[in-house]
């Protein structure tokens, strides 16, 4: 049994007339009758009652018609999915992000993309800016969220938002009420990002402390913003974190003071390959940019 047998059968079943069915299929009537006879022989069942006046489906023919309709519907579904795969809307899409980006926006992004591209397997990686750039250049990820600057001829950068800085401290361990008192913290223990992990960010934090007139005593280092905040919460020091982190942390044991006097901000950017023109990438970037505009 071949697909053409089923197509010929369906044409006759719909027209209930061999002449009209042959015209619809652009073949002559004798070959059509021959194909139907072959199908009936293979099934060992009569599908049509034929006489000089009319053509009717037998009970077996009616059942076969119902099943063939469902079969063709499944074939159409398979064809659509195959086309989607060919159009790069199936497979895997890898997104990297820095730890200071709050998880809710990443969750919203994945929900949005899954609704549009249900066949895609989305993977998330929390990676530093430097490693993200390398991974994107090597084709190991499709999109990244980093803290600029970035210099790469292979990467396209979209500014997502500008982020300021805030002091974070344990309310029980450190007594401070305003930005004017920050210089008094020069003898406090600081928790910073590791210099090798995030060199640019590390330098920015040193610059911030210099603005307030002191060099920080960096005793503890971490490679994750959540780890830094947890160390502060445990009373192991104070730190300076992106204001974006402060806005999304409601822990009553932790205090934040935004550093408004210093005009220093970092660019949080979305990075993609310059050669990437896929619909998934465009949808992801557009969603994040739209989300930021509505904040």
Automatic annotation (TrEMBL):
A cellular component term, taken from the record's GO annotations? protein-DNA complex
Q: Which CDD domains match?
A: PBP2_LTTR_aromatics_like (cd08414)
Q: Kindly give the Pfam families that the UniProt entry links to this protein.
A: HTH_1 (PF00126), LysR_substrate (PF03466)
Q: Which UniProt keywords apply?
A: DNA-binding, Transcription, Transcription regulation
Xref: InterPro entries:
LysR_HTH_N (IPR000847), LysR_subst-bd (IPR005119), WH-like_DNA-bd_sf (IPR036388), WH_DNA-bd_sf (IPR036390)
Q: Which GO terms describe its molecular function?
A: DNA binding; DNA-binding transcription factor activity
UniProt superkingdom: Bacteria
**Record keywords: NAD included?**
no
Q: Which parts of the sequence belong to the HTH lysR-type domain?
A: 1-58
Family (UniProt): Belongs to the LysR transcriptional regulatory family.
Tell me what this protein is called.
Transcriptional regulator, LysR family
Q: Which organism is it from?
A: Flavobacterium johnsoniae (strain ATCC 17061 / DSM 2064 / JCM 8514 / BCRC 14874 / CCUG 350202 / NBRC 14942 / NCIMB 11054 / UW101)
Q: Tell me the organism's taxonomic lineage.
A: Bacteria, Pseudomonadati, Bacteroidota, Flavobacteriia, Flavobacteriales
